[in-house]
Every structure is written in structure tokens, then in C-alpha cells.
Amino acid sequence: MTQVTLIQAINQGLRQAMKTDPDVVLMGEDIGVNGGVFRATDGLYKEFGEARVIDTPLSENGIVGMAIGMALYGLKPVAEIQFMDFIYPAFDQIVNEAAKFRYRSGGQFPCHVVIRTPFGGGIRGGLYHSQSTEQLFASTPGLKVVIPSTPADAKGLLLTAIHDEEDPVIFLEPKRIYRTATGEVPEGDHRIPFGKARVVKEGSDVTVVSYGAMVPQSLQAVNAVEKMGVHAELIDLRTLVPLDYETVLRSVEKTGRAVIVHEASKFAGFGAELSAIISERALYHLKAPILRIAGYDTPFPYALENLYLPSVDRIARGIERTATAT
Amino acid sequence: MSAAVAGLVPLPYGREDLPGLLGPNWEEWLRTAYRWMLLGRVLDTRMLGMQRQGRVGFYGPATGHEAANVGLALSLRKEDWVFPGLREQLVALARGHPLGQYVHHLFTNGVDPCKGRQMPCHPTAREVHYVSMSSTVGSQIIHAVGCAYAMRLRKDPGAAVACFGDGATSTNEFHAGMNFAGVYQLPVLFFCANNQWAISLPVSKQTRVPVLADKAGEYGFNGVRIDGTDVIAVFHTVRAARERLAEQGPTLVEPLVYRMTPHTSSDDPTRYVPKGWMEEAAAHDPLTRLEELLDRTGVLAVTARETLRQELETELRKLIAEAEVTPPPGPDTLFVDTFRDTFWPLTEDRDSFDREQGGHFP
Q1: Looking at chain A from residue 166 to 185, which residues have their Cβ under 8 Å from any Cβ of chain B?
Q2: Topology classification of domain A3-184
Q3: How far is CA B81 from the centre of its chain?
Q4: Do B150 and A106 touch (CB under 8 A)?
Q5: E strand or H helix at B319
Q6: How many helices, marked H, and strands, marked E, lie in chain B?
Q7: Which of A63, A73, A244 to mutate to test binding with chain B, by most B CBs within 10 Å of its CB?
Q8: How do residues B31-44 score in pLDDT, each as one tens digit?
Q9: Chains A and B: how many Cβ contacts under 8 Å?
Q10: How far apart are CA B344 and CA B336, in angstroms?
Q11: Is the peptide bond before B345 cis (omega within 30 degrees of 0)?
Q12: Which residue ranges make up each domain of chain A?
């Protein structure tokens, strides 16, 4: 196994899927000849041809809508939305169509589309290349929401999404760590099941729950507080839907303290759901209030993005405060 | 019923034209088309009445669309897929979806193939490739395009049909669908039944383009407006267009029809339809126009038509009686089909439902 970046792992995963199953097709803006603006589909156009690596017109509702039509017929389309910030023209197609096809047809028409999109800030992208609105999709019944934070998970979760799922999958790629997250990735067909959180680091004093680009950020914070004698346990959720709440609860029952870290806005964010689950099920284990460390409740800024995003320092202070609260 | 209606616009055919248009079995074809069109009319009349009596929750009639729907259904092939809009239920029936199942759907009971999840008049009939629809206007247009792409990629012989109305031509998915189909030259038939009204908005306020079919040119393919109350014209045009799809790419067909009833059971058109419009619509009643031709050509006499109507009404009455006493979907159906497999929190929802609302589940 060699070291690859997260974006290379996505590329490997897509190539693997296309080799395995002729029904897999890719589609999106600039994904063909150009290989995608982040190079996720680099080389695939040449290898698999324009009929299966489809450059589309500039229309997100068109991309997702066409993918839905393909999925209804039996293909396995993987659509790319260039930035999550541009997904909203396709919101109706995702929420009203993909998410509801199986249900409203009484099970006659499953709708297995995989929608990949880079999300999150930290790349000097301003408010239209930085958004993190996973909660909109996580709160829509019928959608699965996946967020890898390592190259191996990116490939494994992507191949599960394409090969094992039959439901629509929103596959959110933390673009900030596309090239900084590196690691070994198993060759060939590597799959990671949905709904199994990863314990990144074990600890006994406080539970830190995160996903996406905030996982490496939180890990740095966890390592920093360790020097102060605080042993935090870090959990990477990997999939928001289905949610491995049991791993979270098990940890909170052990530590009695919980910190939730995401870069999406705090109000009505996914952290609110996690906080509610912990409150409903582990309140009597808690020794301190649950803390949410999140993006602020404003649009995403450009010049001041470093102040907006949870920094290692902000996370570390939050962990320490929660771990020592009495 | 007498075909003599004041001002009726007769279909422009005589006996001598019909074999050329419909083939040697043209008389049989006319009887078949008439049977389906009459069924549509009988259904609308009966179900609107049932809705008024509070016996079905909702109904969306397609009175005035019968020729468009039946002409379309009879021109397609088995392997074709239909992505319906709001008024194409008759297409599903004429393609072979059992009437009994459709009636169960209208009563949203436990035998409804959609498990009672959709409002009435939103059927799904996979066995005849009649795809599930949402109530969002126009969203299905782009699905047809994706389906056609898949058919071509797999080298399957089918074509995809996107059905929609004049209102849908203002939607994002009309533009996306037309554009994508043009770019990829896909076998898609855009079937725009222009009934001249989107609830209360006349088509003149929907777009400045007087003929919707002309929009196709902007996307690089052909569009044609036809008389959508003439079942023969619809059949003939669509069949010819269907033959060309694989070689020539997409086509738009715009059958001009008249919405002869309210938008739905919830609508009151007297608030917005101008004086005289309903009379013009009646002069283009597709069923009456066909009846006049049947009289003129001697294919199906008025007495035979009356017998057929009574047969259809009797059959429908029997199916309604069955559907009305069929129990609603079981409570367990609340928690299936959101995903392929169930998982938390759905499992817990189900448990708490059972706890709170009482012992439904084993």
C-alpha cells in the first residue's frame, strides 16, 4: 500500500467502481476532459470514454435530475456537484424526488443516485465555495449522508455507496483536506459499511464527536490537551445517516462529558441532533453541559474565514473547559 | 349519447382517409381508442362525483385530454417509459395497468400499489413503465432524459416520454430537460399537453411564445403543435415521431387541448375562465368529436356506444364497491420503503408508535 491523498483515494474509488460495474456512470460539470476542478475524475474520461464520464451543461438540477432518471432505469450514476454551495438548484430534485421515489411508489422505484460534492471552508473560497449544510440533507428522510475524513474511508465509503446501497447517498467530501489528508488505502475493492463510527483516539476524560475536515482539526486539539493531562476520546462519525449513535453514547457514558465539533453553523445544525440524543439517553451520565463548537450563525466569510472556522485552539479550549467543568 | 352538438368541430377525415392513417384494421383501432377515451370520461364523471360526496379525498380530472392520452398510449411501444405529469393516468390504463388497481389507488387503500402514500391520481405502474410522479410540476421532464440516456448506453430499444402541461414549460426542469436532451441527442419525446391553463393562469401569461412547440427549435430539435382533441392526429404524429427518435434525437409534440373541468376537485374555474371559453372547449370535446366520426363512418353506432358506456360504468361501480370496503394500508407500512433497509431511528419510531398507539406489530 502506498500513501495517497484523499482526492486520489476518491479517484481510485471511482476508477475501481467503473471497472467493476458497467452500469456505473459519472456526470457533472468539467468532470470529463478536464478531470474535475479538483481532479477527482482525473484520467477517467480517457479510460472509460465520454459515454460513461459525462461532461454536462451547467445545470445542477439537470445533473441530479438526469442521474435520477438513469437510476430509475437501473444505472448507478455518480453525479458530481462542483461545490456544495451550488447544490441548491438541485435541492428539489434531491429532497422531493430522489429522497421520496421509493416511498411514494410503494417500493416500486428505488432511486440509487450517489451525489458527490466537495464541501466546507478553509480554502479561501468565500461564501459560495465554503458552505457546509449537511444538516439540510441529514434531516430529510430518505437520504443517506456520508462524510469521510481519511483517504481509506473516502474510498471505502464511496465503494459502499456505489455497490451496496440502493438509496440516494449524499457524499460530502471535505475539500480542505483533499490534499493534506494522506494515508494508506487498500488496493482494489475496499468497502466500509455505513453506520459504523470510527474511534480515532481513545480517551477517558471527555468525548469529542466530529466528522469531515474537523476530524484532523479536532485530533490536533485532542493531542494538545493531552499535554495538559486531559485524555479525550475522538469519534469520527463517518456517516450522519445512518448514525452510529451507540458508539457516541458508549463513549459519553464512559467519559460523562461531550464536545461536538462541526464547521456548519451551530443553530439547528447536526450538533443539535447529537446533543439531543446524548441528552435524551445519557443525561444521568453527564458531569458537565454538552458543548457544541461550530461555525457561527452567519454566512461564511471570506477575509475572516480563520475566525469563523473552529480552530485547533478554539476546539482545545472547549475540550479543556468541558473536561474540567465541575 | 347523441353526437349532435351545436358548433362541434368535426374531425377532418372520411372513411377513405382512415386506412391510410390507421392501417387496414382502422375500424378496430377506432373502437379501441374510443373505449379508452370513454373510460377516461366515465372515470372522471364518476370520481368527481365521489369526491363531492366525500368518498375519495381528491381527484384530478383529465376531461378534454382523452384524445391526447389515448393517442399517445396507443402509439408507444412496450419498452418505452412514461414519465407522467398530472393528467396522464389514462396512459397507464391504456398501456395495460389494471383498472382495479387504479381504483384501489384512488381510494388509497391497502391494495393501492403506492400503499396509500400519494394523493389520488398519482399512480405508479412499474409493470407498464409508468413512473411514479411527484406533485412538483415539471420535475419529471429531466428524469425522462436520464432514462433515455440509460437506454441508449445499454443499447436498449426503448424511448422515454416526458409528459407535462403548458405551465411546466416555465420550470427549470423543462429547460434542463430540453437542453440536455438536445445536447446528447437522446430518444426523448417531450409531450406537452397544452390545455391552456395552469390552474388559473392562461398560457398567454405563462409565456410570450404563442406556440409552445416553437421552443424546441431553441434547443436544437423539432417541435410540432397538433390538434390534441383529435385522437387520430395525436396517434399519427406521435407514432411517426417515435419512429424517428433513435436516429434523429428528441422531439417535442404539443397537443393543444381544452381543460374542460376544474384544475382539480379543489378548484373553481368560474373565478377566472372567461365567458365563452367553455363553449369553445365543448366544440372541441375529443370524445364528442370521435363519436361524430364513428357515426359518420358507421364504425360504432350510438346504441353500441351506449352499451359500452353501461358496461364500463357497471365495471367501475363493481371496482369502486370493492375498493371502498378494502381496509386502509396497515400501520406497519408507515415504516417501510423510506430506505431499502430499516435502521435507527426508524426502528425506534416504529417501536414507539407501537407502544403509544397500541399493539399493531408482532
Answers
A1: 166-167
A2: Rossmann fold (3.40.50)
A3: 13
A4: no
A5: helix B302-325
A6: 14, 7
A7: A73
A8: 999 999 999 999 99
A9: 140
A10: 13
A11: yes
A12: 3-184, 198-324
User: Could A245 and B183 be called an inter-chain contact, meaning their C-beta atoms sit closer than 8 Å?
Assistant: no
Which positions ≥6 away from B202 have C-beta within 8 Å?
B196
A210 neighbors A235 (Cβ within 8 angstroms) = yes
The residues near A298 (Cβ < 8 Å, ≥ 6 apart) are A265, A308
Into which CATH architecture does domain B15-329 fall? 3-Layer(aba) Sandwich (3.40)
Measured between alpha carbons, how far is A156 from A102 in angstroms, rounded to an integer?
25
Cα A238 to Cα A7, A216, B164: the distances in Å are 16, 13, 41
Q: Answer yes or no: same fold for A3-184 and A198-324.
A: yes
Q: Report pTM.
A: 0.97
From 3.40.50.920, 3.40.140.10, 3.40.30.10, 3.40.50.12780, which CATH number describes the A198-324 domain?
Answer: 3.40.50.920
Q: Which residues of A touch B154 (CB under 8 A)?
A: 75
Q: Which residues contact B134 (CB under 8 A, 6 or more apart)?
A: A96, A97, A100, A104, B122, B140
Cell matching residue B286 = 375529443
Residues 6+ apart with CB under 8 A from B146: A65, A66, A67, A68, A69, A70, A71, A72, A73, A77
Q: Can you list the positions of beta strands (E) in chain B?
A: 81-83, 160-165, 188-193, 197-198, 201-202, 222-227, 251-256
Q: SS3 string of A197-244?
A: CEEEECCCCEEEEECCCHHHHHHHHHHHHHCCCCCEEEEECCEEECCC
Catalytic residue selected from A112, A129, A190, A262: A129
Judged by a CB distance cut-off of 8 A, whether residue B113 touches chain A is yes
Query: Please, is B83 exposed, middle or buried when counting C-beta atoms within 10 Å of its C-beta (0-12, 13-18, 19+)?
Result: buried
Out of B83, B183, B343, whose CB is closest to A195?
B343
Along chain A (326 residues), what's the average pLDDT of each consecutive run of 10 residues?
93 98 98 97 98 98 98 98 98 98 98 98 97 98 98 98 98 98 96 98 98 98 97 98 98 98 98 98 98 98 97 98 94
What pLDDT is recorded for position B358? Answer: 75
- Residue ranges per domain, chain B? 15-329, 331-362
Residue type, position B22, single letter: L
pLDDT for B76-90, tens place per residue?
A: 999 999 999 999 999
**Residue A129 designated active-site:** yes
- In 3D space, the residue among B177, B257, B255 whose CA is nearest the CA of residue B221 turns out to be B177
On whether ipTM exceeds 0.90, the answer is yes
